[in-house]
Structures are given as structure tokens and as C-alpha cells.
Write a structure and sequence with these properties.
332 residues, alpha+beta, Pdz3 Domain, 3 domains, six-stranded antiparallel sheet, 24% strand
Length: 332
């Protein structure tokens, strides 16, 4: 056989295999050729192996499946809750804001006066707003409100409900009783914005507030003896203040302030505040009977019987007096 001819390998018996490198016949149970050491392969389905030139690499160990702990599940649950809550807030907040923005502000009617429930009916305590509706209508503290816009008034809640239904700028008839005399006046309501404006103008007036010189907390509304009216009984009079300097006494009952009837302590306080500082006002008071003057006798001892030094007579006490006292006001 010449060198140019190609040799064809001869099939080996069933129990043998042929080396693919040196073509030597080897038993089929061998894994490597005895002549050249080459790895053998079986063509009959025996032992087979991948022909690799590198070193043997063992297979990588299988990875264990990692389990999630209980604390991790709790954390995941909390995270999901907060995410859902944030999403819900983002959806609801625009709706809530749009509702607030579109809401029409309530600007109800006001009359510039304070009211109170009494056994006799609804009492106007004071005109709280100078140049307000009640002030322009001629109402003053002490007036009993009988009807409002044609509706009879017996309870404070009734008047409140009617004011709620009344529009700002609406003119209504008000029937009231002053010192037992019934009267009717027309009142035009204003809005709360107008009320705030008038209040600011009064509080910021350049002349300031007047001072009378008494403890307003000690003043009280009382029935005037011998008259079918009420007045304001004064308590503590501050020393060296306008009232004290003018001769006003503790216990005096004020019934007029510069010609205006005074029937409640709230109205008297407002009239003092509204007056011009350093102006002189005429105060009409009712002063009670004075006790008999001390005759200088020493008081009896504890072991001696108490006997009057002289017999008291009706003339020893002066009757109630109606006095007009000019008072020059100070400034707060």
C-alpha cells in the first residue's frame, strides 16, 4: 500500500473497540488505549465520555432555595400597607381640597347688639357696635324685643333663627318695650364683613377710649326704688379717678348717661367707652338714704345691754334722691 492511499479502519468485534488515535484493537471494557493512552469510545453503545483536553472539573453543587423568614413577611406587609395608604391619600386629597375651595362662605346678617334670655323675654343687653344697625335704629340696652320682622319673639333661639334667615342689607320692623312703653323701629341689617370694618374703625379711633373710674365687674342691673325702671348700681369707685373726683358714691344707681337711659351694666360700660376722652357728661343717679351720723358715743361693752343712744325717727334717714352730677371723663 502506497503512502498516498488512505487506510480504512476495520470494524472491531462486538467485545472490542478500536482506538481512534492509533487504530489499535482494545477490549471494550477499557477506558484508555494501552498503546497511546488515548481515551477510548464505544461505537456499540458502551461507555461514552466527552472528549475534553482540559483537566476534569467536578460539577457545581446545587444551590439551596432560600426561604423568607417571618419578620421579612411582616416588613413586606407593612410596606404594602403604607404604599396603599399613600395611594389612597393621593386620590382623596384633591377631592377634599376641591370641596373646601368651592364651598361658599357664610356671611350672615348682624345687627350690632347683644341679647339675653330673661324671665320677661329677650333683653337687648347693649348696643355693641357704634353706628351699627341697632344703634342707628335707636335701640339701647334694656329694651325688650317683642317682635322681629313681624314674628313674635319670646325666646332667644327664635331671634337667632330669624337673624340667620335674614339677608344682609334687609330692612325689618322691630317692636320693643322700653320702661313699659311699646315702640316700633326700622332696622337694616349689615354683613359680618361690614361689622368687622366698623369694629376696627372704632377700636383704632385716634382719640382713644374714655375712662370713668369704677370697677365694671361690680356694677349690676337693679330695679330703682320708687320708679318703674331699672338702673345700674355701682360698686367699687376707684380713688382719685373721674367718678370719685366728681362725687359719685358707691351704691349710686345710674339711670341716665348724658341724656340716654341706662338700664343695663353692659350698656353703661359701652357708653363710657364711646364717650370722648376729657369730655364732660351729665350723669343722673339715684342715691339711697344715708345712715344717721355718728354722735360720737362709745360703743357698748359686751357685758352691757345694747340700747340706742337716741330713738330713731323717720327724719333721721334721708329719702332716695335723684341727682345730676357732671363728670369730666379721663382717658385710658
Amino acid at each position: 500500500m502506497s503512502d498516498s492511499e488512505v487506510s480504512t479502519p476495520v470494524a472491531a468485534p462486538a467485545n472490542q473497540t478500536i482506538c481512534s488515535n492509533c487504530h489499535s484493537t482494545m477490549p471494550s471494557e477499557l477506558r484508555f488505549c494501552r498503546n497511546c493512552g488515548f481515551r477510548l469510545t464505544s461505537e456499540l453503545g458502551g461507555y461514552t465520555a466527552t472528549d475534553v483536553s482540559g483537566p476534569y472539573t467536578p460539577p457545581a453543587p446545587a444551590k439551596r432555595k432560600r426561604r423568607i423568614s417571618g419578620m421579612s413577611w411582616i416588613f413586606i406587609g407593612l410596606l404594602a400597607f403604607f404604599v396603599l395608604a399613600a395611594g389612597f391619600t393621593a386620590l382623596v386629597a384633591p377631592l377634599r381640597n376641591s370641596t373646601i375651595v368651592n364651598r361658599t362662605p357664610v356671611n350672615r346678617a348682624v345687627v350690632g347688639a347683644g341679647f339675653d334670655q330673661t324671665d320677661d323675654g329677650v333683653l337687648l343687653e347693649s348696643v355693641t357696635l357704634p353706628n351699627g344697625p341697632a344703634d342707628k335704629a335707636g335701640l339701647i340696652g334694656g329694651d325688650m324685643i317683642l317682635s322681629f320682622n313681624g314674628q313674635k319673639i319670646e325666646k332667644h333661639d327664635q331671634l337667632t333663627d330669624l337673624l340667620t334667615k335674614t339677608q344682609p342689607g334687609q330692612t325689618v320692623d322691630v317692636e320693643y318695650s322700653r320702661d313699659g312703653e311699646k315702640k316700633v323701629t326700622k332696622l337694616t341689617t349689615i354683613s359680618q364683613d361690614e361689622e368687622r370694618k366698623l369694629t376696627r374703625e372704632f377700636e383704632r379711633r385716634p382719640e382713644g377710649r374714655a375712662q370713668f373710674g369704677y370697677e365694671d365687674g361690680d356694677a349690676e342691673r337693679v330695679a330703682v326704688p320708687g320708679m318703674n325702671i331699672h338702673g345700674v348700681k355701682l360698686g367699687t369707685i376707684l380713688r382719685s379717678r373721674p367718678a370719685d373726683l366728681a362725687g359719685i358714691k358707691e351704691g349710686d344707681i345710674v339711670i341716665e348717661f348724658d341724656g340716654l337711659p341706662i338700664r343695663t351694666s353692659e350698656e353703661f360700660l359701652m357708653r363710657v367707652r364711646r364717650a370722648q376722652p376729657y369730655s364732660t357728661v351729665k350723669l343722673t343717679v339715684v342715691r339711697g338714704p344715708a345712715p344717721p351720723e355718728d354722735d360720737g358715743d362709745e360703743p357698748p361693752k359686751h357685758d352691757e345691754p345694747v340700747t340706742p343712744s337716741k330713738e330713731l325717727k323717720p327724719g333721721d334717714f334721708k329719702p332716695f334722691q335723684k341727682l345730676e352730677i357732671p363728670v369730666k371723663l379721663g382717658k385710658q
